[in-house]
Amino acid sequence: xxxxxxxxxxxxxxxxxxxxxxxxxxxxxxxxxxxxxxxxxxxxxxxxxxxxxxxxxxxxxxxxxxxxxxxxxxxxxxxxxxxxxxxxxxxxxxxxxxxxxxxxxxxxxxxxxxxxxxxxxxxxxxxxxxxxxxxxxxxxxxxxxx
Length: 146
Prior knowledge:
Elements: H1 2-23, H2 33-57, H3 71-74, H4 83-102, H5 106-110, E1 112-115, E2 119-122, H6 123-144
Antiparallel strand pairs: 1-2
């Protein structure tokens, strides 16, 4: 079981590196509208994931909503940062998320958390769903970047 969680953490790290490689270093300011919109969503969603993981770890009495309905994700289109600032913020949040996850016990990964859409979920399920979404989004970035 622990190997599966390590694989999730490794996947998160690899996806961050792949995104940087796709977008360049630094990220060009003239991204297509589609690529910029995706980057805003990726950045907002990563911030939401960090907040969700921290809430679960603090054992707050929470009910998770679908991540697409998190206020930060809903407001992603309003972000005004440059593409490089968006990716840098994403990478900072990704580092924070990985740091939180590395320090989890098996019990933490598997603890049930109420979820409005799924009834209940675990942090492992949340991270796996996030990683799957991100893998699909990388394909969308490749298409948007032509």
